[in-house]
Structures are given as structure tokens and as C-alpha cells.
Amino acid sequence: MSTDSLVIHEIYRSVQGETSFAGMPCTLVRLSGCNLRCRWCDTPQAFTGGKRMPRAQVLAEALALRTPLVLVTGGEPLLQAATLPLLRELCDAGKITLVETSGERDIAEIDPRVHRIVDMKAPGSDESHRNRYENLALLRKTDELKLVLADRRDYEWARALITREHPEARVNAVLLSPVHGELDPKELVAWALEDELPVRVQLQLHKYIWGAHAQGV
Predict the structure, then answer these.
(1) Residue 48 in domain
(2) Beta-bridge partners for 119
(3) Above 70 in pLDDT, residue 214?
(4) In the prediction, which pLDDT does 60 show?
(5) Which of 24, 111, 200, 205 could staple 88 via S-S, CB 3.0–4.6 A?
(6) Which domain holds residue 118?
(7) In the chain, which residue ranges form alpha helices assigned H by DSSP?
(8) Residue 49's domain is classified under what CATH number?
(9) Cα 44 off chain centre by
(10) How far is it, in rounded angstroms, from Cα 28 to Cα 15?
């Protein structure tokens, strides 16, 4: 696979919608292609298509938007070999660099300066069998573990994972995110408080600002 070019769905400036960086001005570099089909995926438009661009052009366009934060996302960005050198170059340029990955791909080779957002899949996604649990041992204090939950069963899966693995000891934050329009955030907050889980409940900020189906924002 080429490390000189990437298939890009879109590059745009906005605010970061999730994670502990939510609300910060952010450039989003969305890559095309994903090998999972989560039931609640909100970016199916990035499964296919896109425009192949030289890696140097992707870097230049991202830097030209002049935000302190850059998120490389997808799709699944780690499917493309050129993602790793792009992440390194963004760090070299002084950007706070995030990558969001499904947790199915090996995260070991990502530049250690990158904040890795690992989105492991709950049973309700229909893709939990694809989780690469070996990634949990690789997490560090600059990383965040994200668990998207649709119902009580998903929450109990997340609670068991947290109780068994104690990821909060290794990461910056364990993020519990309700599926928009399916799980009432008030319920998720109540469950997390009742169980005294060491987590951060988060909402998708961009969906409350621009609406659930807006793209490129």
C-alpha cells in the first residue's frame, strides 16, 4: 500500500465534537473506507468514494486551516498506510494531533505524540466480535477509550470491561457515549453514578449544534 497518498472524504474546519477536546477549534481530516459496519454508524457516506490526494497536499490543506487541533478520522483511518506518516508530520508541525480508530486495528505503530481515541465496539453495534483487546495494554495517558452504548445491555458490557481491565488507570479518559436518539443520556448518567464508574459521559456536541444529519461541520 502506498504511503504517498490517501483517499480523502473531506477536510474542513469546525470544533471538536467529542472527547476531552470537545469544543476546541479543530481541523477534521476524514479518510474514506471502513472495514466495519456498525449498526449506528453516523458517517456511512465515508464507506466508499473519496478523492485520492498526495499526502503532502493533505498535510498542506490541514495546516492551512490554522487550528491548533487536528483530528484524523474516517471511516477507519488506519486502513490506509499513509495515515501513520501523516500523523507524524502533523505532530512535527506542532499540531495537537488526534486519531480516532475503531479498536479493530493495531495501534502500536502510531507516533507516541498522537492522542489515540480508541472506539471499542459494544454488542449493540453488531461488530463487538471485531474488537482487538490487545490494544488495551497499549493505551497510555494521552489516549482515550471510547465506548458507544445503545442500551442497558451495552452499558453492562462496558461496566464489565471497565471492572475487568481498569483502563482508567492507563488513559486520559474513559468515555461513555449514548447512541444519539436511542439511549437517553439521563439514563446513562444515572447508571454510571449508581455504579460509581470512573468514566466521563459525553454527548456528540456537533449534533446538538448543527443537527444529527449534518455533514462537513
Answers:
(1) yes
(2) 146
(3) no
(4) 98
(5) 111
(6) 5-210
(7) 55-64, 83-92, 152-165, 185-195, 205-210
(8) 3.20.20.70
(9) 15
(10) 9
pLDDT value for 142? 97
The packing angle between helices 152-165 and 185-195, to 10°, is 30
User: Given this model, what pLDDT does residue 209 score?
Assistant: 77
pLDDT tens readout for residues 152-170: 999 999 999 999 999 999 9
Q: CA 174, CA 200: separation in Å to the nearest integer?
A: 6
Query: What is the mean pLDDT of the segment spanning 23-28?
Result: 97
Q: Give the type of residue at 50.
A: G
How many domains, the chain? Answer: 1
Whether pLDDT at 135 is above 80 = yes
Q: Among residues 93, 129, 136, which one has the least CA distance to residue 114?
A: 93
The Cβ of residue 173 has, within 10 Å, a number of other Cβ atoms equal to 19
User: Does residue 217 lie in a domain region?
Assistant: no
Residue 65, all three cell numbers: 486551516
In a domain, 216, yes or no: no
| Residue at 126 is within a domain | yes
Neighbours of 56 (CB within 10 A): 12
- Percent of the chain past pLDDT 70, that is, above it, reads 97
Q: Which of 26, 135, 29, 142 is nearest to 87 (CA)?
A: 29
The C-alpha torsion from 40 through 147 and 104 to 14, rounded to 10°, is: 70
